[in-house]
Amino acid sequence: MTDSSVYERLGGMPYFVALVDRFYDGVETDSELRAMYPDDLEPGKQALAFFLGQYWGGPTTYSDTRGHPRLRMRHVNFSIGETEREAWLQHMTKALKDEPVGADIEQQMLDYFSMAAQHMINTQ
User: Fold this and answer.
1) In terms of DSSP H, where are the helices of 29-102?
2) pLDDT digits (tens, 9 = 90+) for 13-55
């Protein structure tokens, strides 16, 4: 087996676009979490898909267009506590599990999403 990135193993950007679409389906039905997002979800969806694609081994489109991710800095204007972290993680977990990717990749992605969500907490 060749050493390929998670990005390649999942089929590239189409997988990440679909993952983000499923995630945002959850956000749209979550009144508390939805309130944190702008009316137009499309720019955020595109940015998240590019970020995740890049993170998992794809092209550097996110950094090329937006600069360094600086996730915590980009989310500082939002009050993110345990409740928001749990809601975000719940929707991302569901989005991931709705299209099986294999146990090894799923665990890698869940570990990353859990760590990233925890890192975003900025309020008690």
Assistant:
1) 31-34, 42-55, 61-66, 71-74, 82-97
2) 999 999 999 999 999 999 999 999 999 999 999 999 999 999 9
Residues for the chain: how many in total? 124
Task: Give the number of domains in the chain.
Answer: 1
Q: Please write the tens of the pLDDT for every residue from 43-100.
A: 999 999 999 999 999 999 999 998 887 777 777 778 899 999 999 999 999 999 999 9
89 is a domain residue = yes
CATH code, 22:
1.10.490.10
Residue whose pair of structure tokens reads 């915590």 in the numeric block = 72
Q: How far apart are CA 90 and CA 77, in angstroms?
A: 22
CA gap 85, 77 in Å, rounded: 15
Report helix, strand or coil for 94. helix
User: Are the beta carbons of 116 and 71 closer than 8 angstroms?
Assistant: yes
